[in-house]
Automatic annotation (TrEMBL):
Residues 120-258 form the Helicase ATP-binding domain. Residues 89-117 form the DEAD-box RNA helicase Q domain. Keywords: ATP-binding, Helicase, Hydrolase, Nucleotide-binding. It comes from the Eukaryota. The keyword Nucleotidyltransferase does not apply. Pfam families: DEAD. The keyword Hydrolase applies. A motif (Q motif) lies at residues 89-117. The lineage of its organism: Eukaryota, Sar, Alveolata, Dinophyceae, Prorocentrales. SMART domains: DEXDc. This is RNA helicase. Transmembrane segments: none annotated.
Length: 258
């Protein structure tokens, strides 16, 4: 069992190590309607119900985490100006957009785990992050919640050109080493993104590529994939494959440098 959480915060893009002019810097407000993104999606044609996504809610966190024991585990934060970073003790302190905050309440999330209470404010402040924590510590929430918050605040990007048939163009990329982990991340991402207009799609080996491509063509804002499949024809149209490949290369390069 890991006895310590390690979090690394490299410098911001301006080189100062402090928050840059990120969309996170202001108050939480949505920057546009993702349900109307021009990428071929069909409004209302594929939405799951709240019961289908969340199941029977109990009104409390059912993850089985002993928060008192977790809080006794030391958290090591390294990087530039980390003394300015203040962890959150409740998700409400993160001042997330209403739609995302509502989904956390639907999940029964009120009190964050150590990796969540430290990672979320770091990313919300516009910083890059690499975190290491034990299995079952809530890492998916720790990176997916600020990812969704970024997209909600910035709004959907404009269609880059005139096309007779818009193509899916993911704005976020999540790489998982196995299809089982990718599937788990996708399930949680579907909960966090419920009714926000943001679509999380998944591709992995051992499944029908035509079915997965069909899902992508309905619109894809966050792509969850195993590394090999993120470069496959199912991941993007030929003209958009470079975008996905560049996102993957950037993520892998950053990991290697750290």
């Amino acid at each position: 069992m890991v006895k310590q959480f390690a979090i690394f915060c490299p410098r911001a893009e301006d080189g100062s190590g402090r928050a840059n002019n990120s969309v996170f810097a202001g108050a939480a407000c949505e920057g546009g309607d993702w349900k109307k993104r021009d990428d071929g999606r069909r409004p209302g044609g594929y939405n799951l119900t709240e019961l289908e996504v969340f199941g029977e809610t109990s009104g409390k966190n059912t993850s089985g985490i002993d928060f008192d024991s977790y809080d006794n585990i030391p958290v090591q934060i390294t990087g530039n100006d980390v003394q300015d970073i203040k962890p959150i003790n409740r998700f409400s302190e993160a001042k997330l957009t209403d739609s995302l905050a509502d989904n956390l309440r639907r999940c029964g999330y009120e009190r964050p785990t150590p990796v969540q209470k430290n990672s979320i404010p770091i990313v919300i402040s516009g910083r890059d992050l690499m975190a290491c924590a034990q299995t079952g510590s809530g890492k998916t929430c720790a990176f997916m919640v600020p990812c969704l918050e970024s997209l909600l605040r910035s709004g959907p990007p404009a269609n880059p050109g005139s096309r007779s048939r818009p193509k899916p163009m993911p704005c976020g990329l999540v790489l998982a080493p196995t299809r089982e982990l990718a599937a788990q991340i996708h399930v949680e991402s579907t909960k966090f993104s419920f009714d926000t207009g943001i679509r999380a799609c998944i591709i992995y080996g051992g499944a029908d590529m035509r079915e997965q491509r069909s899902e992508l063509e309905k619109g894809c804002d966050i792509l969850i994939a195993t590394p090999g499949l993120s470069r496959s024809p199912a991941a993007a149209a030929p003209s958009d494959a470079a975008r996905v490949a560049a996102m993957q290369q950037e993520a892998l390069s950053a990991e290697a440098q750290i």
